[in-house]
């Protein structure tokens, strides 16, 4: 943003701080959203709001006035922070509740390994793609792909999940293909 949009580092820092404000707002209302529309729909809501906000970054270019860029960055950061907290808190209610006690630590360890382990790979691929097709174009591709990632939930019980699910029995073995393809 400092290179391509000519935003001063201090102003960028202020805009990034809006993400923290959005995250705190998301923390404060995530439970209420989950109770009002259901845990599954709240999870999906977070899955959409978080990446949808990111589209504001590639919409700006070097010809966009700095005050407008800053407004876009503040809005993007706020809603991305808000969406990720709604997503994380509602997922955090679903995953442990449904995971049998005997494998909970393995499930959460695997979840974290995948969640945090994929980030360096994504950064590498994003850098490569940015070098090949351009930074702005890569941001569009990544935002659209992130929004499309919610599609795998259609046809699953997640969208109908209202309350904390019952715990799975200790002898539970998940169906490897729960959705008819």
Which key phrases capture this entry?
181 residues, mainly alpha, 69% helix
Give an account of the 3D structure.
With 181 residues, the chain is mostly helical. The protein has one domain (9-160): Growth Hormone, Chain: A (Up-down Bundle). Helix content is 69%, strand content 0%. It has 6 helices and no strands. The chain has helices spanning 9-37, 39-53, 56-59, 66-98, 104-133, 135-148. α1 packs across α4 (66-98), α2 (39-53) packs antiparallel against α4 (66-98) and α5 (104-133) runs antiparallel to α6 (135-148). It is globular and about 60 Å long.
In short:
The protein has 6 helices and no strands. It has 181 residues and is mostly helical.
Computed over alpha carbons, the radius of gyration is 19 Å
Compute the number of structural domains: 1
Helix content: 55-70%
Instruction: Describe the sheet with the most strands.
Output: none
Q: Per DSSP, what share of the residues sits in E-state strands of 2 or more residues?
A: under 5%
CATH architecture descriptor text: Up-down Bundle
Overall geometry: globular
What's the average pLDDT?
A: 89
Distinct helical segment count: 6
Quick one: CATH class?
Mainly Alpha
Query: Termini separation (Å)?
Result: 42 Å
**Overall strand count:** 0
CATH fold description: Growth Hormone, Chain: A
Q: CATH homologous superfamily name?
A: MFS general substrate transporter like domains
Order of helices and strands: HHHHHH
By helix and strand content, what is the structural category?
mainly alpha
């Amino acid at each position: 943003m400092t290179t391509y949009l000519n935003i001063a580092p201090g102003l960028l820092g202020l805009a990034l701080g809006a993400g923290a404000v959005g995250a705190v707002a998301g923390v404060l209302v995530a439970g209420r959203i989950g109770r009002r529309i259901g845990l599954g729909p709240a999870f999906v809501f977070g899955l959409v709001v978080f990446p949808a906000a990111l589209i504001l970054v590639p919409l700006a270019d070097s010809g966009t006035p700095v005050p407008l860029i800053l407004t876009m960055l503040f809005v993007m950061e706020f809603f991305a922070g808000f969406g990720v907290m709604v997503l994380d808190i509602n997922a955090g209610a679903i995953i442990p509740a449904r995971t049998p006690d005997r494998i909970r630590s393995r499930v959460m360890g695997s979840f974290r390994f995948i969640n945090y382990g994929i980030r360096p790979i994504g950064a590498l691929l994003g850098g490569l793609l940015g070098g090949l097709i351009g930074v702005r174009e890569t941001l569009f591709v990544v935002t659209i792909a992130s929004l499309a990632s919610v599609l795998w939930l259609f046809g699953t019980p997640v969208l109908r999940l209202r309350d904390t699910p019952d715990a799975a029995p200790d002898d539970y073995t998940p169906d490897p293909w729960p959705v008819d393809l």
